[in-house]
From TrEMBL:
Keyword field: Oxidoreductase
Residues in Malic enzyme NAD-binding domain copies: 162-394
Family: Belongs to the malic enzymes family.
UniProt domain Malic enzyme N-terminal: residue ranges: 17-150
GO molecular function, one term: NAD binding
Ligase among keywords: no
Any single Pfam family the record assigns to this protein: malic
Keyword Metal-binding in record: no
InterPro entries in the cross-refs: Aminoacid_DH-like_N_sf, Malate_Decarboxylase, Malic_N_dom, Malic_N_dom_sf, Malic_NAD-bd, Malic_NAD-bd_bact_type, Malic_OxRdtase, NAD(P)-bd_dom_sf
Name assigned to this protein: Malate dehydrogenase
Length: 434
């Protein structure tokens, strides 16, 4: 089946010459129009922006344009394939941004594997964009890039492998906890895998109110704790993992995955494809009505039916063909829609929590053990999520254009609806061949 999709993908990419194009958004009825859009009229626009750079978010397309930037060092499922090969993936991301969020995203793979050079390039292109989406970058470099660029740029910087996964995971856990009668903030949680997604998931869970000591992280060498043999090396090479080794695991557990899962309420695995990474007997040793998120792709760390047979009450994966998909695509188009409409200066964990809570709230009254998150086809969730983000950015004083929840809901519905309608019109007219 996978070979079929590979073959079709190559054929379709060749036929269409890629997935991305620029389309004018202003009417052109005669050559005189260019005196307004370009010379001489545009000179006055440039003069005003020179006096007040924030006017670029009102007088140019910058307010709705982001860069999808990658060095191609950790492309999902492929690893270090380089920037040229990464372009196809970044272009796909741009398509999802446009279709689900109405965001104009530009694929921008760069030949800058060194962290300092990468930061220099991104800082240099900042004036062209309203936001930056970092994508498919190796760990632990990705942590430094996100932290430093977030501090130094005056536009939101996002790393989907970190923030997108963490936000979707938190939303799913909020509803899973409700269904099982657990208090998420006081639950014990084993995080299997300590790469980009679970490092940020731990950070977001703590920001949400989960006790740091209740988190137990496991990497390829075992459970994180302050007495590990490699703790000094972690302090130098991966200070983000080092900090979690000090703050989490109040019981000072040692060992591997089995020891981390024993007697806990929840397991969130984002490690390597299974099955068999998590064993049924380990699930059976968790607390009553355990929650199991096995998020590795293309094959989860344990099959859902195996986890259920071992006693799991709720199981989620990263796959669309299984119940409860924890999908980044539920997050990043909507979060950026809200950030861009509010002309936000940055993105914070408080905004991510607002997005997660809105995502969770969307299925209230309808959720079940096999339905804890919306599906991508339920497009109504995207404007609501965008509204929650814009309202939170405004509340925190980080919006150049403060918006209420209701104001952004109307704006996002219009923009996303127009994006979907535009594609339909282009297809119906034959300008995009079906």
């Amino acid at each position: 089946m996978v070979d079929k999709w590979y073959r079709l993908s190559v054929e379709v990419h060749r036929r269409y010459g890629g997935k991305f194009a620029t389309v004018p958004k202003v009417p052109v009825t005669s050559m005189d129009d260019f005196a307004i859009y370009y010379s001489p009229g545009v000179a006055e626009v440039s003069r005003r922006i020179a006096e007040n750079p924030d006017l670029a978010f009102e007088l140019t397309s910058r307010w709705n344009v982001i860069a999808v930037i990658s060095d191609g060092t950790r492309v999902l499922g492929l690893g270090n394939v380089g920037p040229e090969a990464a372009y196809a993936v970044m272009e796909g991301k741009a398509l999802i941004f446009k279709y689900l969020g109405g965001v104009d995203a530009v694929p921008l793979p760069i030949r800058a594997r060194d962290a300092d050079k990468f930061i220099e390039v991104v800082k240099a292109v900042e004036p062209a964009f309203g936001g930056i989406n970092l994508e498919d970058i190796e760990s632990p470099k990705c942590f430094r890039l996100l932290d430093q660029l977030s501090k130094e740029l005056k536009i939101p910087v996002w790393h989907d492998d970190q923030q997108g996964t963490a936000t979707a995971t938190l939303a799913g856990l909020i509803n899973a906890a409700k269904l099982t009668g657990k208090d998420l903030k006081n639950s014990t949680i084993a995080l299997i895998g300590a790469g980009a997604s679970n490092i940020y998931t731990a950070r977001l869970l703590m920001a949400y109110g989960v006790k740091p000591g209740n988190l137990i992280l496991v990497d390829t060498k075992g459970i994180l704790h302050p007495e590990r043999d490699d703790i000094d090396r972690l302090m130098v090479e991966n200070p983000w993992k080092y900090e979690l080794a000090l703050r989490t695991n109040a019981e000072r557990r040692k060992g591997g995955i089995a020891e981390a899962m024993k007697g806990v309420d929840i397991v969130v695995a984002a490690s390597r494809p299974g099955p068999g990474i998590i064993k049924k007997e380990w699930v059976a040793q968790m607390n009553k009505d355990p929650i199991v998120f096995a998020l590795a792709n293309p094959t989860p760390e344990i099959w859902p039916w195996e986890a259920k047979e071992a006693g799991a009450k709720i199981v989620a994966t990263g796959r669309s063909d299984l119940p409860n998909q924890v999908n980044n695509s539920l997050v990043f188009p909507a979060v950026f829609r809200g950030l861009l409409d509010a002309r936000a200066k940055t993105v914070t964990d408080e905004m991510l929590i607002a997005a997660a809570e809105e995502l969770a709230k969307f299925v209230e009254g309808r959720m079940s053990e096999d339905y804890i998150l919306p599906k991508m086809t339920e497009w109504e969730v995207y404007p609501r999520e965008a509204a929650a983000v814009a309202a939170k950015a405004s509340e925190l004083g980080l919006a150049r254009r403060p918006l209420s929840y209701r104001e952004e809901l109307n704006i996002a519905q219009e923009i996303i609806g127009k994006s979907v309608k535009t594609l339909e019109v282009l297809m119906d007219s034959g300008l995009i061949p079906k």
